[in-house]
Amino acid sequence: MTAVAEPGRRTVRVGRVSWVVHRRELIVVGALVAVIAGVGAFALTQGEYRIPLDKLLAAVTGSGSESVLRIVLEWRLPRVVIAVVGGIALGLSGAIFQSITRNPLGSPDIIGFNSGAFTGALIVTLVVGGNYAAMVSGALIGGLATALVVYLLAWSRGVQGFRLIVIGIAISAVLNAFNDYLQLRADLNAAIAAASWGMGSLADLGWQDVVPVTIAVAVLVPILALMSRRLGMLEFGDDIASALGIPVERTRLLLLVIGVALTATVTAVAGPIVFVALAAPQLARRLTRSAGITLVPSAAMGAALLLVSDVVAQRIIAPAALPVGAVTVTLGGIYLIALLITQAGKR
Hints:
This protein is mainly α. The chain has 15 helices and three strands.
């Protein structure tokens, strides 16, 4: 391994692989990891049964009482883990879409891929009547099918970011109407369950829900890491990326599939959760003061946002709890207003 030091950055090379490490990015990611650790510890100790910190540490090491072990390891820890892993997936998904569209509104929430994944899961749940695994598959297929339709409709001698967003918004509106139609025609209990799931919630999730999201992240993140240079090149525009030898449309399509798979996996287990994929890359970019979208800070910011939002959802009207989607959609509305005011001020 060799390292080349420059002001504020360090280029690290391992064999033929090299990457640039920015000092400010390291500081921001370190701070976000500290926030995640602190909020995670708070989430594990708070609730109907409060657990002191010493008993929490004993439970984490497997030496606590049976009741504390059950509360921490079986009830609360899966929710914290899926908030962190799901937040990483959503943050990375948002980073992908904002890079390939070169637009801060380029997010699976806005483009409609969340709605497509929800549609797939609803069809399996309300029409076909499949089990949990079928619902996860339905969400993945729905998200990918929506991405394919949006991609094909946006195609005109290539895919332009703004055109992709506009068509995605239109497809999202159609899918939301279709989702409402499916729920109106469903059995009352099934419709209530689907509507509750559609709010986006991490409540009642267990280790069986953590597994598919973790596997998806573990498989897709290394592929994304290998394509990170191409992703960065796309931010300079298709002409420059093509001149640098990047196969633009093939790269964009593969990145689209990775981004949809990341967000659809989270949607399948927790329902559609908005705002995180939209805001995490932009907040991370502002904190790191980087010129473009950065993957690692976006992932860390996504994990911190979803975990903090879920803790707020659990505690803001305790002992009752809100679905985390209700918190993120509120924050998303505030974020969008602030973004529009900022963009208007630049003109």
